[in-house]
Structure formats: structure tokens, C-alpha cells
């Protein structure tokens, strides 16, 4: 059980450090909201420990020591560590999931760049897909299909963050745009750092990131609709609030260099209302074939780590029925992609 004083500290940290998650958490039932706040507080602490310190490699090393202590049941004497250790014990959290998060933060410490969109998805899988998988564990959803869609949602959120922060990252001499995109556009990273401008090629790369995020949000929705009804509003809220950031960037002509997209309090409130309605509308609806789509190659290791042993772990690739479901899932996802492209084209005109 999480100590109430530790939980209040976690709640305060999220209230000030992650407005989007704090807003979404208001729609979660208490039995999920409290451990989720503890989980997010530890993740926030880990991210800040690397991002806000000059000696980043040493910061990652200390985080690994804190994670090890939490899993040994002797956490550091700090509220977020104690709360996270309680979550680990109460929910039998697979260690590979927070380890993946720390791997992603280590990549940040190295200032690693990503050659392809697949490489960027691999990074996003670690810093955000792992959090989606951990949320599934808190819900008791250890089914491989639900885990795959939760990882889709986490990756979509991270790609949205990257698209929003292109200018901010450039001014800090960080680059998350795939370097093969940069090369194709004949843009040099050092020149971009020296003078970050919302050039047309940069806007186009931002558009491509948001298009990929939209594709994954659509895949994730099939998983949200398969969750217990009590938790659907909160997860729908997270999906819509983060997608709203992408919509703000899109409305600004994909310029996230001279302006940082965000959602207002009023927009967040609108997302909460929409999410409740969407949760109600999903009741009794047949499950989408997209639920059974294979996990992203970049998130499959997270699904394997969190799924319970048994036939369901590999159900997406077994037998003629599994193959048929996969075909339908791909067709439905492709149809969603075509509709998204049509919306982009309409907006551009």
C-alpha cells in the first residue's frame, strides 16, 4: 500500500510537472489513479534527473541504483521512491518496463540521434511506450493485444511531444527529427541549431511526425475500447489531450519552431467531456479488428515482458484465424491512414 503522505507528494509533483496527465487522471477511478500517480511521479523524477542536470550519465547511473533499491524492497528515503516501490510490490511490475524507460533516458544522456523513423519509434517505445505498458499492468490488463495498443498510445504521445518541441530542442542543440529526413531535405543539423527557422522542409517533417502519431492514436483506440469501462474515460482523455497538442501545431501551419503548441484549460475540459462520451459510446460496440494488429516491431519486447505466460502472448501470429484477423486489422488501419491523408490534404488547400 502507498503511504498517504507519499501519495500526496506524488500528486503535487504531477499537478505541477505534467498538466496533461493530471487532467486525464481526474477521470480515472481511485484504485487506478493513485498507483498511476505514483508511477508517473517516479517517471517524472527520472526524466528531470537527467534533463535538468549537467552530468547526465552520472544521473542515469544513480537512477539505475534507485531502481535496483526499489526492486529490492529498500527504496531511497524519498516519497516518489517509496511510492514506486509499493507499486512494484503490489502489482508485480516487470522490471524490464522501468528498465526500458531508463535505457531511453540514457540515450538522451548520450544525445543520441535517430537515423530513421523506426529508430525514433524505438526511442519513443522506451521513454513512453514502456509507461503505457506499465499502466496496463496497473489495470491488470496483461493480454498481449491490449499491451500492444497501450504501447501504440505511448509512442503516439511521444511523437506528438517531439513534433511540438522541434524549436525548443534545436535551441538546446538536440535533434529528434530522423536524420535521413534531414539529409533528404538537405538540412544540416548544426546550421539548424545556429538559426532555427520554421522552414518549409522542417514543417513537412513535423507534419510527417504528427501523421505517424495520428496513425498510432487510431490503433490505440481499439485497445482503449477493450479496457474495463471504469478506466476508459481517463485513457481516452489522455489520448485526446495529447492529440490536441498535435492539432494546435497543425493549425499553426506545422510551425513548432517559433511557437510551442499547447492546449488551454478550456480545451482540456472539453477533452474530458468528450472522453466521457466516447467511453459511453464504446459500451456494447463490437471490437475493432485493429485490436489484434501485431505490435510495432519497436515495442514487441515490451509486450513480451509484460504479457502473462500462455497462448495469448503470441495470438497475433498463430494459425489461419490469426492471419485472417491480422489482414483485416491491416486493411482497417490502412483505411484510417487514407482518411488522415485526405484530411491533411484538405487542410493544406
From TrEMBL:
Asked if the Swiss-Prot or TrEMBL record annotates the protein with the keyword Transcription, the reply is no
One Pfam entry for this protein is SQS_PSY
Q: What is this protein called?
A: Phytoene synthase
Q: Identify the PANTHER family for this entry.
A: BIFUNCTIONAL LYCOPENE CYCLASE/PHYTOENE SYNTHASE
The answer to keyword rRNA-binding applying to this record is no
One Gene Ontology term of the biological-process aspect is: carotenoid biosynthetic process
Top-level taxon in the UniProt lineage: Bacteria
User: What is the originating organism of this protein?
Assistant: Tranquillimonas alkanivorans
What family does the database annotate?
Belongs to the phytoene/squalene synthase family.
Q: Which NCBIfam families match?
A: PhytnSynCrtBRhod
Q: Which UniProt keywords apply?
A: Carotenoid biosynthesis, Transferase
Q: In which pathway does it act?
A: Carotenoid biosynthesis; phytoene biosynthesis
Which GO molecular-function terms appear in the entry? geranylgeranyl diphosphate synthase activity; squalene synthase [NAD(P)H] activity
CDD domains, from UniProt?
Trans_IPPS_HH (cd00683)
In terms of SUPFAM superfamilies, this protein maps to: Terpenoid synthases
* Cofactor(s) listed in the protein's UniProt record: ATP
Amino acid at each position: 500500500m502507498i503511504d498517504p503522505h507519499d501519495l500526496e507528494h506524488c500528486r503535487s509533483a504531477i499537478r505541477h510537472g505534467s498538466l496533461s496527465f493530471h487532467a486525464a487522471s481526474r477521470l480515472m477511478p481511485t484504485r487506478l489513479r493513485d498507483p498511476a500517480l505514483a508511477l508517473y511521479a517516479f517517471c517524472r523524477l527520472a526524466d528531470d534527473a537527467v534533463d535538468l542536470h549537467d552530468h547526465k550519465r552520472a544521473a542515469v547511473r544513480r537512477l539505475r541504483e534507485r531502481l535496483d533499491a526499489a526492486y529490492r524492497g529498500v527504496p531511497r528515503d524519498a516519497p516518489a521512491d517509496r511510492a514506486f516501490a509499493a507499486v512494484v510490490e503490489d502489482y508485480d511490475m516487470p522490471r524490464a518496463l522501468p528498465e526500458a524507460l531508463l535505457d531511453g533516458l540514457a540515450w538522451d544522456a548520450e544525445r543520441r540521434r535517430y537515423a530513421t523513423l523506426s529508430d525514433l519509434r524505438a526511442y519513443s517505445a522506451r521513454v513512453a511506450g514502456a509507461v503505457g505498458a506499465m499502466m496496463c499492468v496497473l489495470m491488470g490488463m496483461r493480454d498481449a493485444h491490449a499491451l500492444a495498443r497501450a504501447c501504440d498510445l505511448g509512442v503516439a504521445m511521444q511523437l506528438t511531444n517531439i513534433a511540438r518541441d522541434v524549436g525548443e530542442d534545436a535551441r538546446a542543440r538536440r535533434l529528434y527529427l530522423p536524420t535521413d529526413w534531414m539529409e533528404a531535405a538537405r538540412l544540416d543539423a548544426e546550421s539548424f541549431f545556429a538559426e532555427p527557422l520554421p522552414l518549409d522542409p522542417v514543417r513537412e517533417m513535423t507534419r510527417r511526425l504528427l501523421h505517424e502519431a495520428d496513425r498510432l492514436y487510431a490503433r490505440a483506440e481499439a485497445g482503449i475500447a477493450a479496457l474495463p469501462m471504469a478506466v476508459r474515460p481517463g485513457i481516452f482523455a489522455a489520448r485526446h489531450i495529447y492529440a490536441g497538442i498535435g492539432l494546435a501545431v497543425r493549425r499553426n501551419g506545422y510551425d513548432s519552431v517559433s511557437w510551442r503548441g499547447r492546449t488551454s484549460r478550456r480545451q482540456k475540459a472539453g477533452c474530458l467531456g468528450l472522453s466521457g462520451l466516447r467511453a459511453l459510446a464504446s459500451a456494447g460496440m463490437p471490437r475493432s479488428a485493429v485490436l489484434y494488429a501485431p505490435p510495432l516491431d519497436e515495442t514487441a519486447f515490451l509486450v513480451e515482458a509484460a504479457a502473462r505466460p500462455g497462448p495469448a502472448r503470441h495470438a497475433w501470429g498463430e494459425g489461419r484465424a490469426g492471419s485472417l484477423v491480422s489482414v483485416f486489422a491491416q486493411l482497417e488501419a490502412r483505411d484510417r491512414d487514407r482518411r488522415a491523408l485526405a484530411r491533411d490534404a484538405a487542410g493544406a488547400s
